[in-house]
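Problem: given the chain below (88 residues), write out its structure.
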Amino acid sequence: MSYAWDTCSSELKKFISDSLRKIQSIITSKQKAGIWGRSNPPKRFHAIIRQASEAYETEKSAAIFSESDLNRIRDYFKKSIEDQLRRI
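Solution.
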């Protein structure tokens, strides 16, 4: 199943936006967050992170997201954020 950004559920949009905000609280700008997101997570996530970053920045994206890709990236960020919080 695939989703255009405009058709994603508000819960999924909120999760993506919240995740990007958490990253941005560490990194000071959307641009730097996008650069970080395209270079730090595993390469298998780079394309989806780029698409999500562009969709978040413009809020008018024609990007199509697969549900399985979104779930994998969600799980990766959730685990990464939880691991970071445990270290604090």
